[in-house]
Design a protein that fits this description.
Blueprint: E1 2-7, E2 11-17, E3 20-26, H1 44-71, H2 82-108, H3 119-145
Antiparallel strand pairs: 1-2, 2-3
């Protein structure tokens, strides 16, 4: 059947069938696999904080987007303006995650690393999703209501 005749920068295989002798050459090129480096743990704390904060911000922005679609206005100011402030800071954090992700994509060709527990990857994905939903809802509100609510209370919202 198959008989290995020699090894020189490849493998030669001799196949014998009956009285005829047919030889075929097969070259095998093997490369040494790259060593898999464990992910760096020096930034784990930063990635956990950024991932948890980005995920929380995406949740607040999703709530605000839902409220905007159902009422025509964002979240109410809340006691002492705390809820409105949380909404504003969350949108800034959401834009920060999207900006960081876009910068990393342009610079390295990859998005953000998943980070510990996948938090940073989740924050990145949710941020893009919520930003897209928010843009769609703003467009729908403009078409249906004729205005886009401002960042501070006015005559249309909480005025």
């Amino acid at each position: 059947m198959a008989n290995v005749l020699g090894v020189q920068k490849g493998v030669q295989i001799s196949v014998r069938r009956g009285r005829t002798d047919r030889r075929a050459q097969l070259r095998v090129c093997a490369r040494k696999p790259k060593a898999v480096e464990p992910e760096s743990t020096e930034n784990d704390g930063k990635y956990i904080a950024a991932g948890a904060g980005g995920t929380l911000a995406a949740g607040v922005c999703a709530w605000s987007t839902f409220t905007l679609k159902t009422t025509g206005c964002g979240l109410p100011p809340g006691p002492g303006g705390a809820l409105g402030a949380l909404e504003g800071v969350s949108f800034l954090a959401l834009l920060g995650v999207v900006g960081w992700s876009a910068y990393t994509k342009v610079k390295t060709g990859k998005g953000l690393p998943a980070g510990p527990y996948g938090l940073l990857g989740a924050a990145e994905g949710l941020s893009y999703l919520v930003l897209l939903a928010y843009i769609v809802v703003l467009g729908i509100n403009y078409v249906q209501l004729g205005y886009i609510p401002g960042a501070v209370p006015d005559d249309n919202c909480f005025g």
